[in-house]
Write a structure and sequence with these properties.
about 130 residues; mainly alpha; 1 helix
């Protein structure tokens, strides 16, 4: 079918317009296609950043756990040492009291002996004084 130059011109313009529209659509499609990888890349970066944060927090948590365990071990050792020193101190105090008690008993017995030895001459003198008229 033959077309007039005008219709061909219109037809060419139509094709040009159609081609321009297709280019625009392609650009839009390319633009959309490019945005999806950008958004996907951004989401991936965000996930990776969150994963790094979680890993860092986990590492900090492990470090704090080990530090706390070490501090508890040192505290337990210090408590054991203090308990042993306290036990030794109390045992020494007990032994000192026993020694002082034994010395006190010895002194008391010696004083009683001295009192009896001093009392004998006094009784003899008192008896002699009473016997004399």
């Amino acid at each position: 079918m033959l077309t007039s130059p005008r219709s061909r011109k219109g037809s060419e313009e139509g094709e040009s317009a159609l081609g321009a529209a297709e280019s625009s659509v392609q650009v839009t499609e390319v633009s959309v296609v490019k945005r999806k990888p950008f958004i996907s890349s951004l989401a991936q970066s965000s996930r990776e950043y969150e994963q790094r944060q979680v890993e860092e927090l986990a590492q900090v948590s492990v470090t704090v756990h080990h530090s706390t365990a070490e501090q508890m071990r040192l505290l337990y050792a210090q408590q054991q040492s203090t308990a042993k020193q306290t036990e030794e101190y109390l045992q020494q105090q007990y032994d000192n009291r026993l020694a002082l008690y034994a010395k006190n008993e010895a002194i008391s017995e010696r004083l009683e002996g001295q009192q009896k030895s001093l009392f004998k001459p006094f009784e003899m003198l008192s008896g002699a004084i009473e016997a004399s008229p």
